[in-house]
Amino acid sequence: MKIKAPKDFWAGLMFVAFGIGFMIVARNYAMGTAVRMGPAYFPTVLGGILAVIGLAIFAKSFVTNGPPVPRFVLRPMTFIIVAIVLFGVFLKPLGLIVSAAILIGLGALGGHEFKSKEVAILYAVLVVFSVAVFVKGLGLPIPTCPLFLDDTCRRIGIGM
Amino acid sequence: MEGLIPNLALGFGVALTPLNLLYCFGGVLLGTLVGVLPGIGPVATIAMLLPVTFTLPPVSALIMLAGIYYGAQYGGSTTAILVNLPGESASVVTALDGYKMARQGRAGPALGMAAIGSFFAGCVATVVIALFAPPLAEVALKFGPTEYFSLMVLGLIAATVLAHGSLIKAIAMVLLGLLLGLIGTDVNSGVARYSFGISELSDGIGFVTVAMGMFGIAEIVANLDHKEARAVFDVKIGRLLPSREELIYCIPSVLRGTVLGSALGILPGGGALLASFAAYTLEKKTAKPPRNFGNGDIRGVAAPESANNAGAQTSFIPLLTLGIPSNPVMALMIGAMMIQGIAPGPQVMTERPQLFWGMIASMWVGNLMLVILNLPLIGMWIKLLTVPYRMLYPAILLFCCIGVYSVNNTSFDIYMMCIFAVLGYVCVKLECEPAPLILGFILGPMMEENLRRAMLLSRGDPSVFFTKPISAVLLGIAFILLLIVMAPSVKKKREEAFLEA
Fold this sequence. Notes:
The complex is a heterodimer. By secondary structure, chain A is mainly alpha-helical.
């Protein structure tokens, strides 16, 4: 058997995996009856349908032709995901000013061109804008400064 | 119809307060901006701004978010015409004739016609909503859980039928969305489903998180796959207003586009994108003489631009009357309403008339603002186009992160967004449209709830869905839709229709 439509092949597998996965986990919950459906009822039915449809897509990939799966470009993806995760990790302890620097710096590294001066200016503009609009203007409770500098920040009026 | 005038008066009373005018202005301005900029669409923008709107009164929040959606349709056409870069997918067809016109030195009339057509269509669509929404809501008020469940089935099926790309994969994405929507505490039993002991997951996954991951971040990553294409702008705009002959020449096209767009917008799965494609195809088939299409025929700009604006607006009808989203933007609007503590559905109109009519009136006001604003500001939008993507995406990244964080003030949502970004990227690569997933995600819990109630009422007899007349008709339509699309000849036509442009 030759895979004729690689995109469908992988998409089908993905849907089958999700469908079966949802069904398996649902076994931990009460099924109930059609009259009084338990928490497992609806997800089990949906998971089953999803798995069947996934199987159909999978089977179709051996019959009809389709384009190949385009290359996964890992560099931008890796940089951006790492940047976002680090932003999440450092936002509470170090505040927006520091974590935004990590996010924007690493995120920009994931692109095709990196001009440090340009990124620095971009960072400065974005941080000033975000603090002014989101924290000061809209009053969103986002930590701005590192915890240990809290008092200093509050004194100069950029803390929360 | 007797209440129409007082209702609209009430609406304008709300829409014309200084605060709401300001938010409407902010919305359309921002919408135009993201319409102009390629690589960021209204879905990601609205998702980013949702947390910001928590602090606003509900009417103002919805007025602003709606403005972003229809404002983006205006902005998208500007870049489609001037630099052949449709900033918004609904403007793809506008680029065909619009850019040709620009190359022939007729960019001004093309832009002018797009704006005039959009404005006319926007005015008509506002009236269409005002006329059709109340009777539809009245009908919907009589719906019980059985009818609602069938309606959602129909809505989801229609959304996949009318979306582009593979039908079967779209249905799979809907199902996946429904399942993901079920994550979190089950309201009936109190069981935390699929939470794997993570306390944050027992509240469910926020749809802002899903939308930003799959539309915002995944799009950035997908865009960074390729080196960016630089926009080269070397077109003279010339006078902006079309001549009298051009205007008269376009009247039938604008009318056709408006009617078609208004009709398609109401359908589930419809909206601006489908409307503009269909209008261009129709124009090519019916307009006489047809000789010039693809070579800078101004009717090829007028019709799809009218249609996409009409469609963008009438797609609010199912949202406002039935509480059912017809496209991802509407799904986000439902989310915005729920965050504001408003249960979307037919009761919105009777319980919160200021909200309902204020939003409708604001659409007309917003359209007027767009015309007045955009024609003189075209120079500024063009300048913005020269901003390279590498300056743009870090900003989107930061706003997405801040937005997701501020929904619950927890970094957990930021990590969840990453998971959905990866899923979104994989889906892009495997040609699975993310839009149906979002629709399913929003409707998942509602569908389960209605299914449960319907089955409880019928004592577990599933035939109730086929014996209650309204429900049977709705399911029948869904079934027929599926059959039609699966018929080989229609299937080919459908694929052609989406490929044509």
